[in-house]
Amino acid sequence: MKPPYLGCIADDFTGATDLASNLVRSGMRVVQTIGIPSEPPSEEVDAIVIALKSRTIQATQAVEQSLAALQWLRTQQVQQVYFKYCSTFDSTPEGNIGPVTDALMDALGTEFTIACPAFPENGRSVYKGYLFAGDVLLQESGMRNHPLTPMTDSNLVRVLQAQTKRRVGLVDHSYVRRGSDAVSSRIAALRSEGVEVAIVDAIDNDDLLAMGPALAGLPLVTAGSGVAIGLPANFGVSASDLAARLPAARGRRAIVSGSCSVATNAQVADFRQRGGAAFSIDPMQIVAGVDVVSEALAWADKLLDDVGPVLVYATAEPEAVKTTQAKLGVEEAGQMVEHALSQIARGLVAKGVGQLVVAGGETSGACVQALGIDRMRIGPAIAPGVPWCHAQSRYALTEGIHVTLKSGNFGTTDFFTKAFEQLT
Question: Would you say residue 105 lies in a domain?
Answer without folding.
Answer: yes
